[in-house]
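Local shape tokens:
==================
===
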Amino acid sequence: MTTQAGTEGAFGGPPRGPDPRAARSRAAALAAAQELLVEQGWSAVTHVAVAARSGIGRTTLYRHWPDAASLIHDAIAQRMSVVRPEPTGELRGDLVRELDALRVLLHEPVSERGMRAVIERAAVDPAFTKLKEALYRAGSDGFRSILEGARKRGELVADLDIDLAIDQLAGPLMFRRLLAERTFSTEYVHAVVESFLRLYATQGSGR
């Protein structure tokens, strides 16, 4: 009798889960990359430096992350996944929570340094150009889902340009933090959302 790989353990035992050693190694490597990014900037995130700090072999690091850009990507993506809220279907609240999650990321050292590094390097390094595109897609997916759902429900104007709407929501936060280097609170997030809804919410949406 044959069994499908990955569905049963040895001798028909219970299914095998993820290897905890591999999970610990990945966590240690990403933690080291995040620390180096904050302490010394993107140029310090090398396989040699991450291996020295984490104790993970360079061969293992290269197998999972063939270049520094992929290491930085996963270091930022890990932080993004922690703060991302689940949409509820209530337009105003969903926009506030999604935008506030971006506010948290912009004030968190790893993700802020990472975003600055990606923007800086994207103009001269194709690997970072791809990284910037991947992070943009990941960062905008939540907004896109909320806006498209609200448009279908008739809560936003039918001709809403989704890409422009994302820019109008996220753009002020990115500008204020990454260019003006100013901090801001949730009150600013609420102000941005209210301005957006005054422009695009329909009369029947409870704006």
